[in-house]
């Protein structure tokens, strides 16, 4: 188990090292007004952390009286910032649709309009919240609608298609049950739509093993990816949500995708076939070719070439060699000077 873990760690580590030079930039010390931070330095490496606090009468723009920020490729996440105590942080009103890309903070006295989540409504006819001395005060609250439904009930051999996980559903909203592979509803369909009617869902399907081998059963049956849970890990690859029922894998630089690019969730809640990310580079080790001047290991993508300087020849011309990566094998040319190369003498 330990060895296997190590293998994966190595696989994952290699691309991280490859990216190190291009992506992982250092952060400069933050410009923090009305506050202080530790440790002090002029610059900070990628992934390093600082902790900050604010002067009297001020607070960080995240919950708590102190906060941390992490350096991610040259940017502090979140940028350290101290605001007046009487300012408000973005609202977190229970059961409301709290805006996701709202402002970092709001001045004392500012007002916002908010909406309730599905299944909830205001108990007073006013959807305004006001920032007063650091706290959001709202006239009305989001309360459960009596006509709302909870989650559709569990039914054997079926799943519910749902794009986001929600606890409550407004009246008249729809949900779709899907029978698992080889099972059909009482109407010999793969799926059945139910509706929320004043606090109750209409009857769901009864999924029973299908006796017929009709066309409906042999259709490939894929369902939204949320039903299959967390996205499967492909070493050196990255899943992107392509559509609500498809993941699209891309491989990290220096790796090549082999197998299906699109991965889907089957109605039996398993993932369709996964691709793999195969190495697609040659490694030119520092020191492996004595005549080349290298300062570090170099990676060359398949079908690409890179020129390297060689040790100077006896006439003290600069010499160069071309290194090609073909089918993951290195091909290193002779060392020649520019004149020889231009005259195609080598
Ligand atoms: C500042 O950063 C350098 C390089 O990362 C490190 O060697 C040094 O110890 C740091 N100084 C402080 C005060 O943390
Ligand atoms: C914040 O705003 C409220 C309402 O506008 C006001 O009554 C209060 O005095 C303000 N607080 C401060 C500290 O200025
Ligand atoms: C709603 O509440 C806000 C904040 O308390 C208040 O300023 C506003 O006048 C109210 N609106 C109505 C229509 O009652
Ligand atoms: C939902 O259905 C149950 C049983 O069928 C019933 O007892 C209940 O009153 C219904 N709820 C509402 C809000 O109509």
TrEMBL record:
Q: Check the record and name the Pfam families matching this protein.
A: Sushi (PF00084)
Which domain of life does the UniProt lineage start with?
Answer: Eukaryota
The places in or outside the cell where this protein is found are: Virion
Give each disulfide bond as a residue pair.
88-131
InterPro entries tied to this protein: ComplSys_Reg/VirEntry_Med, Sushi/SCR/CCP_sf, Sushi_SCR_CCP_dom
Respond yes or no to whether keyword Cell membrane is given for this record. no
Residues in the signal sequence: 1-20
Keywords for this entry? Disulfide bond, Signal, Sushi
What is the official name of this protein in its record?
A: Sushi domain-containing protein
Q: Which organism is it from?
A: Cyprinodon variegatus
Organism lineage: Eukaryota, Metazoa, Chordata, Craniata, Vertebrata
């Amino acid at each position: 188990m330990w060895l296997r873990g190590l293998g994966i760690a190595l696989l994952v580590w290699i691309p991280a090292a490859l990216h190190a030079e291009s992506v992982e930039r250092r952060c400069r010390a933050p410009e923090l007004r009305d506050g202080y931070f530790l440790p002090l330095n002029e610059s900070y490496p990628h992934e390093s952390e600082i902790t900050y606090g604010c002067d009297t009468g001020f607070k960080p723009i995240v919950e708590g009286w102190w906060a941390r920020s992490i350096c991610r490729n040259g940017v502090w996440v979140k940028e350290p910032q101290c605001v007046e105590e009487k300012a408000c942080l973005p609202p977190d009103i229970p059961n409301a649709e709290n805006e996701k890309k709202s402002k970092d903070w709001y001045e004392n006295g500012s007002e916002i309009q908010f909406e309730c989540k599905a299944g909830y409504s205001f108990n007073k006819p006013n959807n305004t919240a006001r920032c007063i001395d650091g706290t959001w005060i709202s006239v009305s609250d989001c309360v459960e609608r009596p006509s709302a439904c909870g989650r559709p009930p569990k039914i054997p051999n079926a799943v519910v298609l749902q794009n986001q996980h929600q606890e409550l559903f407004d009246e008249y909203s729809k949900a779709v049950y899907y029978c698992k592979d080889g099972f059909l509803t009482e109407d010999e369909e793969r799926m059945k739509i139910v509706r929320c009617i004043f606090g109750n869902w209409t009857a769901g399907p009864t999924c029973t093993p299908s006796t017929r081998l009709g066309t409906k059963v042999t259709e490939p049956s894929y369902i939204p990816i949320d039903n299959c849970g967390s996205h499967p890990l492909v070493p050196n690859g990255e899943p992107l949500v392509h559509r609500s029922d498809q993941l699209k894998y891309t491989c990290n630089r220096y790796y090549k995708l082999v197998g299906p690019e699109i991965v889907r969730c089957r109605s039996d809640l398993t993932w369709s076939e996964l691709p793999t990310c195969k190495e697609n580079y040659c490694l030119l080790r520092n020191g492996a070719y004595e005549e080349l001047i290298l300062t570090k290991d170099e990676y060359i993508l398949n079908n690409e070439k890179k020129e390297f300087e060689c040790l100077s020849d006896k006439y003290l011309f600069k010499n160069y060699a071309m290194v090609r990566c073909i089918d993951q094998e290195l091909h290193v040319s002779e060392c020649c000077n520019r004149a020889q190369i231009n005259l195609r003498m080598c």
